[in-house]
Amino acid sequence: MNPVSKLLRHNLSLTQTVGFVLANLVGLTIVVAGLMIYLDAKPIWNGDDSFMKTDYVVVNKRVSMQNTLGASTAFTPAEVADLKARPWVRSLAPFTTADFRVSASITAPGQDRGLNTFLFFESLPREYVDVEGSWAYKPGDATVPVIMSRDYLALYNFGFATSAGLPQVSEKMISSVPLQLNITSNGTPGMGTRVQARIVGFSSRLNTILVPQEFMDWANATYGTGAPREPSRIIIDTNSPGDVAITDYIDEHGWEIGGDKSAARASFLLNVATGVVLAIGVVITALSFFVLFLSISLLMQKNRPKLHSLLQLGYPTAEVARPYRQVVLLTSVVTFALAVGASFLLRGLYIDSLRAMGGGAPVWLPVTAGLALTLLTALLNTLAIRRRVVSAFYS
Predict the structure, then answer these.
(1) 331: burial class by Cβ within 10 Å (0-12, 13-18, 19+)?
(2) Average pLDDT value for residue range 67-73
(3) What is the mean pLDDT of the chain?
(4) How confident is the model at residue 301 (pLDDT cuts 50, 70, 90)?
């Protein structure tokens, strides 16, 4: 060992060094493992088919006896503007409803009997639709793309079809069967048309039957009454799903959120819990930094006369500070390796189950976050050591 290093490390406390390693190990493990768990589980509650996919909420007014007697459930422009100004709203879009009557007929391949039913149509901007694939339409196109709620197909297959003796159909099968839409004007008696349509996807987010906004605008202008129609439902892209501020605002106005609100609350609580866990890990890591800093500061205070003498004899500042830097770097490397190892061991206990549910994520981000935190604490301690050594020269 270098004589300078041997001289300056003489009073190094092993207990304080071990205390730093253990404290830093706990903090780093919480940060790395917490991020791993969060990122591995995130695809499960953020997937399109997930019950935790709650960035979007649909709001409508409650239906009461007054509405039955003629009161409107539509949102006024002032209400839409006030809702849009809320801090938890990233963006919103009113549902555009059909101002015409429409029915559809469908006949499955190989079947003599078909299904005829009245329908309702709504439309939304493309960015709010959770179905991939072609959604383009121009007036005059031969086929209108339609998106249907996945719940509607389940109701047909396991409710209506079984009781009426009709065949059950899969998503793939019904998407391959053309629909014939019979449109009847609300504005001009006897006016209407027939158009072909095809179901291009099924939505887990939206409980409705959607057509492109371009088709809705054209059909309303051609076959509607021409009277202005205010929206009765609004879809909101929120930046804090499950936030109590959302439910408080909705309840205050006497509105309601479509679907199950428990998923939104669970998602909010999961995000909060993850933030708390990561904050605890960062705090413990910061405290471990101060443990090592105080340990080395006390050691350097004991060695202050030696430091002064070595600097006066002409030893460079970097060489005098090297023993303390080596302690910092060695303990930081050991702590980081142990924290990453412990996090991977913990991940091995749950990752197979999460992958079976569609979870799992690359581990480079948690490891990089742990490395960045380690380098930050090592850098701060190194700078503090250099400052202490320089101050010893002028003592």
Answers:
(1) buried
(2) 64
(3) 75
(4) low
Q: Using H for helix, E for strand and C for coil, what is the string for the chain?
A: CCHHHHHHCCCCCHHHHHHHHHHHHHHHHHHHHHHHHHHHHHHHHHCCCCCCCCCEEEEEECCCHHHHCCCCCCCCHHHHHHHHCCCCEEEEEECEECCEEEEEEECCCCCCCCEEEEECCEECCHHHCCCCCCCCCCCCCCEEEEEEEHHHHHHHHHHHHHHHCCCCCCHHHHHCCCEEEEEEECCCCCCEEEEEEEEEEEECCCCCEECCHHHHHHHHHHHCCCCCCCCCEEEEEECCCCCHHHHHHHHHCCEEECCCCHHHHHHHHHHHHHHHHHHHHHHHHHHHHHHHHHHHHHHHHHCHHHHHHHHHCCCCHHHHHHHHHHHHHHHHHHHHHHHHHHHHHHHHHHHHHHHHCCCCCCCHHHHHHHHHHHHHHHHHHHHHHHHHHHHHHCC
Report pLDDT for 316: 67
Least Cα distance to 367 among 384, 344, 395, 390 occurs for 344
Residues 6+ away with beta carbon under 8 Å from 265:
242
User: 143-149 and 96-97 as β-strands: parallel, antiparallel, unpaired?
Assistant: unpaired
| Mean pLDDT within 183-195 | 81
d(CA 249, CA 380): 46
Residue 261 has what pLDDT?
53
Contact at 8 Å (CB) between 185 and 92? Answer: no
pLDDT tens sequence across 216-233: 888 888 888 877 788 888
Question: What is the rounded average pLDDT of the residues 152-176?
Answer: 80
